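fwd from M.: "can u put these together and see what the complex looks like"

so here's what she sent:
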Amino acid sequence: MARGTSSVGSDAAAAVKPEAAEVAVKGNGWTGLIPIAIGILIALVLHFALPAPQRSYNTQILQIIGIVIVLAVSLNIVNGMTGQFSIGHAGFMAVGGYTAASITYYGSMLLWGSTTKHGGFLGSGDWLFLGSCLAGGLVAAIAGYVVGLPSLRLRGDYLAIVTLGFGEIIRVVLQQTGPLIEDVKALQSVGLKQLVPPPLGGSLGLSGIPKYTNLFWVYSILTITLVVAYRLKSSSAGRSMISVREDELAAQAMGVNIARQKVTAFVVAAFFAGVAGGLFAHSTGTVSPKDAGFQQSFDYVIMTVLGGRGSISGVTLAAIFLTVLPELLRDFEQYRLIVYALLLIIMMLVRPQGLLGIHEVWEMFNRRRRKAEVSGSDVSPAEVGP
Amino acid sequence: MSDFAQTLITAIAIGSLYALIALGYTMVYGILKFINFAHSDIVVLGAWGSYSLSVRILPALGYGLNEVPPVWVALMILLLAMIFCGAIGFTIERLAYRPLRRAPRLNVLITAIGVSLLLQNVGQLSFVFGASPQDMPPLLSDRALATFSFGEGESARQLVIGMVDVVIFATATSLMLIMQYLVFHTQLGVAMRAVSFNTDTAALMGIPVDRVVSFTFVLGSMLAAAAGFLIVMKYPSISQPAHTIWVLLGLKAFVAAVIGGIGNVRGAVLGGFVIAFVEQFGAFYVSSNYRDVYVFTLLILILLVKPSGLLGSTLREKV
């Protein structure tokens, strides 16, 4: 841990846009909903303005971009704001994905007799889907709590190994689940005994999930994620998280309950990862154990590192960039991870705090902020030696 | 009884492999205080390097790929693989880790993950090792050195002590003894331990810290290369460089280092055997499906109960 005491107060203060904090305090509680309303409006427009074939290439990419941003921004709460290092994010995503997928799969079988899509826009099928995503998020949050607990006693690299081990355990356990029950009659006559191990498709995974995910749901949930992340960052809880990142000892001395901040970060991040897992499962129609592996987690880690650890807009931009780039460079697929790896190394050597550091994009254009940077408040923890 | 003994023999062979890899983790951690994530990829390089060396050297020396060459050929391949990996380890430390010597540990960890990804994916390129599994030509004859029979009739079992297991154990043990001598009985070893204890003070005492760190990396990488070589002796079908199997292998070895008490050379060896015993006996007596789960569960338990490991010492952080 860097003991960069000089940077604690100033950096944490610089992270918060004072006006935003004032709005949060002064507003009567409803003004905070404006960004969410705008986001949902955009989601509606996207949903209805794009041409009808839901599975067209562009729609698909737009969905994936939205889901990936949710994952990267939620990971950023743990890795960026709280300064922990989780490389098991795909594990939480898989937990959420499996939970949501099994609920809609077996739920729609029991309710409507088949696993095809049921009801139109905002129809009964859509509500089942939304509920299943929330359930996925909750189960993932519980998993996040369990994984967050060791983080109270472990720091830095040990924690990385535990989160990595968590993803692997999830993967192995999912591989050992029983075969899917594929028709309604078999499902209705199923006994308790057949539910152990749970019928989740074993190493083949769960497929044939009704594809409820559409641009409206993806971008509505993305809006909520972004608003929650931003409000968290500018709240006192978020400031406490940033202080844990800067210096645990100093934070503790200032009365921050570091244990609680760490676990909170894990739970919030895991919840959104779980919801994103649900969205993803209902977008591709399949979930499989290998989704939980750590190789999947690395993609999101790279996004948080590149965008700036703690910067929500920076991570969002990095997520968009790193999702679109491989699509454009299809022919260079085998070089994709080499480029990522070099990016990671070079970033750490040249600009370890990420492209934007902890700042948001709009703060970069703010002259007052820039002056503050020059006067030395931008001493990032990375530049202060141990 | 014979099942138990057979599992024991496998566990000892595998345990010495884990111990070899764990030594590399623990030495680097002891000196630089970070997990060298790329260490498992050095093992992969050792394995694949031994493979490419054998398919090139064996025909050049006039041996077919299926006949067993004399022992000195195998030794030469082992040595060349160790030198190759030592050089790679030196380069990595020089280019990626040394500039970050004073940076926070998290940055170094991220760099290490980057190096690991880089090695894996460069190895997968078609003109390096390729992305398909290969079969290692046999360098040792896998004959049974000793066979014991137990029981009569239906329940008759045989206990086989194979050549490969014995060679693995012997090679690994002699390398570990050399390490032990180097670390505890030479001036270089004193320098290594001094740097590990306190880098700044060691530098003030005139110890060339950079050179000692480089040497540690080279040493760790050579041990990893030897482990890679021995692994392909035991399991001749080599998975492609970015296969999960390799990462898991490296992780388990790291777990071994943590369980033994990271930074502690003897602890790494102990941890290697503990891991192998848990894994092999768990796989045999409980269920082989969950063999990775046992190891990680053990890790989490150890970290919760005794975070400094079995032989590790606790250091309180002071303000």
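replying to her w this: The longest helix of chain A spans residues 258-284.
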